[in-house]
Amino acid sequence: MEWVNAILQGTLLGGLYALFAAGLSLIFGVMRLVNIAHGDLIVLAAYLGLTVTSTIGVHPLLALAIVVPAMALIGYVLQRGILNFTLGDDLLPPLLVTFGLSVILQNALLEVYTADPQKMNAGALETASIPVGDLAVGVLPLLTFAFAIAVIAALQFVFYRTALGRAFRAVSDNQDIAQLMGLNRRHIFGLAMALALAVTAIAGILLGIRTSFDPSSGGGRLIFGFEAVIIGGLGNLWGTLAGGVILGVAQNIGAQINPGWQLLAGHLAFLVVLAIRPRGLFPRISG
Amino acid sequence: MPDPILKTEGLNSFYGDFQALFDLDIHVEEGEVLAIIGANGAGKTTLMRSITGLLKNGANEVSYRNEPIGHLRADQIASKGLALVPEGRQLFPSLSVEENLLIGGRVGRPGPWNLKTVCELFPILDERRNVPSTALSGGQQQMVAIGRALMSNPDLLLFDEISLGLAPVIIKTIYDALPGIVGEGMSAVIVEQDISKALAFSSRVYCLQEGRVSLEGASSTVSRDDISRAYFGVE
């Protein structure tokens, strides 16, 4: 029964990892940008949530109504103001610039919020659980997983059923020709980053309710996000959810064997997938 | 004579460090079909890229309806009513046939062309509208590329090497459709390697050679000898 529990909790944890990963996946898919600062942006969203909840005293989930648009705006400005200038044939400039951004964000957060670990208070939600047979399923992890499914379904809808998604795919395919169709790629990239950071805001708030965080927590979230994307296969959003679940389950099984093996087991699962299926489990069909 | 719809004045364009066009002066009259011929490397595609804004130029080097556009981005130029059917078709591989056409209509200019009228022009596209664009034959892809450009209801349509790599029977189908496309007051520029096709479907012709105009004249009066000289630079 402990094993069933480990797998169940790991699956739900995978929802959070999928939320970390979805923004990364979207950005890479649209503009081939690997955002090293992604984890720190998740932590930034958590801190913004903390500020909103402590200043106006609302529940962290209600803070989403402010943090999601705020992060989307930050994303658009960041893309138009900085990141667009790093994009080109070379993958290195965006890597270096987002790495620098990561350092700046961490230090700015340290300056404003100090190094003390913080946590958002979600009241009864944090400890509520639903009995399932002999197990107890936490309401918060269940809610997180539901958010992950909803976010990925929504992104999937935007990508494949709307004019904006068509524009994302067209710009991703061929920037010059997309420009000829009247699409300003800089604006489209800005919208893609806005959408990615809106998802990041949801991930950050759920992270901040679940565990404590501090200005240096971003790196770990980035790794989990990366691993979920790679396991699932680049460019496949549902694959990213599967990648998150595999990572979460591997970590929980590892922790079940020995509490010290939690992270190691996740990384091992990632390496095994990378060794056997270098393109991930569910790569997008057209290269 | 009315003002030309498009004009280049002293256009110098570069392909990397290499200068591809030298002080080029050409113009397109309102409502005419202009042919641009020339050997490989004469600068035809560079000219198309300069006109559409994929290459940046000095503002006054390219003007559209007497307005300088040389410095504008491609999307800004597209919204003024200028569309390109690019060399090699260049459809969006991750979009279906219908989505490729819809992207073309994004500019949102009013006019006769929409999904329905484009599918009437090329009925095969209607049958295959939900197929990925990569699954089509070369000729069908060319029809999508033309339809995609038409969807923006342009006033000036540029065709870059539309017969390149296609079977003769397909080329005929596509050229047969041209009068129906450029008939309605639209101006067009046809860049073509096939000289007889270019002359048959145009009213005026420029021949480019090493980035300069080597011949200009009415398509019906230029002689084969003139063209050979202008094309190859042989005296």
Could you explain the architecture of this structure?
Chain A is mainly α and 287 residues long. Chain A has a single domain (2-276), classed as ABC transporter involved in vitamin B12 uptake, BtuC (Orthogonal Bundle), CATH 1.10.3470. Chain A is 73% helix and 3% strand. Chain A contains eleven helices and two strands, in the order H-H-H-H-E-E-H-H-H-H-H-H-H. Chain B is an alpha/beta fold and 235 residues long. Chain B has a domain at 6-88 and 158-232: Rossmann fold (3-Layer(aba) Sandwich). Chain B has a six-stranded mixed beta sheet with strand order 6-7-8-3-9-10, with helices on both faces. Chain B has a four-stranded antiparallel beta sheet with strand order 2-1-4-5, with helices on one face. The two termini of chain B are 34 Å apart. The chains are: A mainly alpha (287), B alpha/beta (235). The interface between A and B is medium-sized, with 18 and 28 residues.
The oligomerization state is: heterodimer
Helix fraction of chain B by DSSP (H/I, runs of at least 4): 25-40%
Name given to the CATH architecture of the domain at 6-88 and 158-232 in chain B: 3-Layer(aba) Sandwich
* CATH hierarchy, class of the domain at 6-88 and 158-232 in chain B: Alpha Beta
Strand content of chain B: 25-35%
Radius of gyration of chain A, CA atoms, in whole angstroms: 19 Å
- Residue stretches of chain A low in confidence (pLDDT < 50, at least 5 long) are none
Give the ordered list of helices and strands of chain B: EEEHEEHEHHHHEHEHEEH
Q: Compute the average pLDDT of chain A.
A: 95
Distance between the amino and carboxyl termini of chain B:
34 Å
Overall radius of gyration of chain B:
17 Å
CATH homologous superfamily grouping of the domain at 6-88 and 158-232 in chain B = P-loop containing nucleotide triphosphate hydrolases
Q: Let me know the average pLDDT of chain B.
A: 92
- What is the helix/strand order of chain A? HHHHEEHHHHHHH
Shape of chain A: globular
> How many β-strand stretches of chain A?
2
Distance between the termini of chain A: 42 Å
- Strand content bin of chain A: under 5%
The number of helices of chain A is 11
